Amino acid sequence: MTRELEFLTVFLLGGIAYGALELLWRGRTHWTMLLAGGASFLLMYLTATASGLPPLGQYALSAALTTAVEFVTGAVVNVKLGWNVWDYSNRPANLYGQVCARYTFFWFILSVPGCALARFLHASVFRRL
Length: 129
Hints:
The protein is mainly α. Helices cover 74% and strands 3% of the residues. The protein has helices spanning 3-26, 31-50, 55-80, 101-126, and strands spanning 94-95, 99-100. Strands 1-2 form a two-stranded antiparallel sheet. The model has no long low-confidence stretch (mean pLDDT 96).
């Protein structure tokens, strides 16, 4: 399998998982969240398989990168385009209503199984093809 196909597969898995997670958590999602989820899981995959960081570092970096992806997505989707997909301005420790500390913490927790899945995919699926 080419590296491009590996990354595309990881991106698609992340987008589907992110959308499913939003459906479970909020009862709805938006197509832009599939893109944000794909980008986030691809970055998590690279963090877990190529960064050389210890596990806690991988989780922290993955949470920070996912938060950054959400912030950029929110800046475009919510602020620039005015689609109002989400608004965290009523949450404590939010940044322009696009991200907040609570969800960054949740991304840290979700990075534990996410990084484990990334390492599994890397070692057991993509290296065997």
